[in-house]
Amino acid sequence: MALRPENLPRDPDRLIEMVLAFDGEIEALQATITKLRTIIFGARSEKSAVIIAEQLSLGLSDVETAIPTPANGDGKNANKTAAETRKKCNRNIGALPRHLPRVDVTIEPETTTCPCCAGALHRIGEDVNDVIDRVPAVLRILRTIRPKYACRACEGTVVQAKARPRLIESGMASTALVAWIASAKFAWG
Asked: Is 140 in contact with 103 (CB distance < 8 Å)?
């Protein structure tokens, strides 16, 4: 509504209320303009900071409820977060080239005796991971096999060697291949 002098109230208290209301509205609009300018013209980190600050101001007090304890005694996993209990997703990144030669490296556990009953462990399976490796002037697939062993006597223990650490977690490139790529890019131009 456009304010004209003839439409304004004559009471000074009412005029003061109108001025204060308009002042509050102006401040809110200026804050909105500043926020939108930051989102549009600001650095990426500033944009995300504004969005995160808005999301943190959401009222979620009704969502925060007490988690009941399980009645069947499964409370031992109740303290774990969702990230700890969630199984890692298998990535489908396609097959590696078949024409490259394969080299199998088997990592056996330190011992094949059951730590529980000292019985002999038998092989029940294996985990196989493939990475692309580079030997000077040759690309090959380096397949790491980690057999799993279990005890037939106690049927509760599974033993497997630890996986070798990778330079890029869950990546397909070996350390030698990453080093070769980095030196080819930065050292040899």
From this structure: yes
Domain boundaries, the chain: 11-55, 101-186
Give per-residue pLDDT as tens, 123-145.
Answer: 999 998 888 888 777 888 889 99
Provide the pLDDT for residue 153: 83
Question: Do the Cβ atoms of 150 and 157 come closer than 8 Å?
Answer: yes
Structure token pair of residue 166: 């990778």
- Is the torsion defined by CA of 63, 64, 66, 71 positive or negative? positive
Amino acid residing at 165: P
Cα angle value 180/181/184 (rounded, 5°):
85
d(CA 147, CA 45): 46
* Cα angle, residue 98 at apex, residues 92 and 104 outer, rounded to 5°: 85
Instruction: Choose among 146, 147, 135: nearest CA to 174.
Output: 135
Q: Are 152 and 122 in contact (CB under 8 A)?
A: yes
Reduced to 3 states (helix: H, G, I; strand: E, B; else coil), residue 113 is strand
Cα 125 → chain centroid: 29
Q: Cα(147)–Cα(128) distance, rounded to whole angstroms?
A: 9
